[in-house]
Design a protein that fits this description.
Blueprint: E1 2-3, E2 8-13, E3 27-33, E4 39-52, E5 56-69, E6 74-81, E7 86-94, E8 102-109, E9 112-117, E10 121-128, E11 131-139, E12 147-154, E13 157-164, E14 166-172
Antiparallel strand pairs: 1-2, 2-3, 4-5, 5-6, 6-7, 8-9, 9-10, 10-11, 12-13, 13-14
Length: about 180
């Protein structure tokens, strides 16, 4: 799966990876329009199916794809992979998630998602059917935010690094497990 500057996610089938040669015979499968313009960030969460790293993405699996774009939007899409097809279904979205480009997204679990944008806002969204609603909001002192990385949980607190022109370590205690 790749993302593009036209707002699409596209899927390719690639041959087996080998140390002996470089393959250029990738096979285009499908593309889906998610954003109005460029997809800037993506996070994947496997819901069901069996992951086979380097062989196949999934076998009869469902993956949730969280994306942010330079259209200021956050989209949650369900991708179902079968032996014969890839089906993408929009689940939820917020078109004005930030006042500028969304540069980072993360799955937090419990139907909650995190986004960060060039506007220096960190927002946590909760899934409410076809819409995401703002659950919690914070601010980062990092200018020109390029993204966010999840460092995991330490002593009941989730830790993140926001990076851009500098970086900042943030903690969030999630009361809902």
């Amino acid at each position: 799966m790749i993302t593009a500057t036209d707002g699409n996610i596209a899927f390719f089938r690639i041959p087996r990876i080998s140390k002996a040669c470089v393959h250029t015979d990738w096979t285009f499968c499908k593309k889906f329009t998610i954003h109005q313009s460029s997809v800037k960030c993506v996070d994947l969460n496997q819901v069901s199916g069996m992951l086979q790293l380097l062989l196949k993405l999934t076998i009869d699996g469902i993956i949730h794809i969280l994306t942010g774009g330079d259209d200021n939007a956050v989209h949650l899409t369900q991708m179902e992979v079968t032996e014969r097809d890839i089906i993408c279904t929009p689940l939820a979205k917020v078109l004005d998630a930030h006042t500028s480009t969304v540069t980072g997204v993360l799955f937090l679990g419990g139907s909650r998602y995190l986004s960060v944008g060039i506007d220096q806002k960190i927002r946590i969204w909760k899934d409410e059917g076809e819409r995401l609603w703002l659950f919690c909001e914070g601010y980062t002192f990092v200018p020109d935010v390029c993204g966010i990385a999840d460092l995991g949980v330490k002593e009941d607190r989730r830790r993140f690094v926001v990076f851009g022109t500098g970086m900042e370590l943030l903690e969030w205690q999630d009361d809902v497990a």
